[in-house]
Amino acid sequence: MFITFLHHIRAHEQFRVWLAIKWLATYISVRPTEMRTLTEAQVDRKRGLLIIPHPKEKRPKIVPLTAEDRDILSAIPHNFDQHAPFFRHERNGEPFGVSILYKAWKRACKALGITGVDLYGGTKHSTAMGVRAVATFEEVRLMTGHTTNKAFERYFRTEGAALESLYAKRKAIVADNQMTTDFSLPQSAK
Length: 190
Fold this sequence. Notes:
Blueprint: H1 2-12, H2 15-26, H3 32-36, E1 43-44, E2 49-52, E3 61-64, H4 67-74, H5 100-112, H6 119-131, H7 137-144, H8 149-152, H9 160-176
Helix pairs in contact: 2-6
């Protein structure tokens, strides 16, 4: 689903709006306001890093970019004013306003018939929930940037289909190791 979102946003929004939303879904430790307010200096092209000097967590975040995003970044014209906003309007160079990413997200939701998913939930929460299928608790916690388990634990609540999937995996492991999976009641107990 998210790929469809990104395709829609890429086709209908400014390139840097698409890039900001793509990066929010990739680097889920970064909040929308932190992403939107990055300067040219904080997007370190040489080392392939996003540097958030004053995040909510009170200590700087250093976020390494993927090879794909370093390639995208190398194709973007560089503004040599290190204080210039990285996420800015193409037509006039003005910084993105507070709601530009949210509004682009909502337009894509409406066009694709999706309801009840906001920007933060659709990027950070959905990505964390998806990644947990292939990563450990600690790996996902590292991606989200949570330093305590209390706020993070909501991403690992297992219920419904996810819980059923865990039961199926357990059953497969037991069967592969030729352990018994017959937990039916003995005849005498019936």
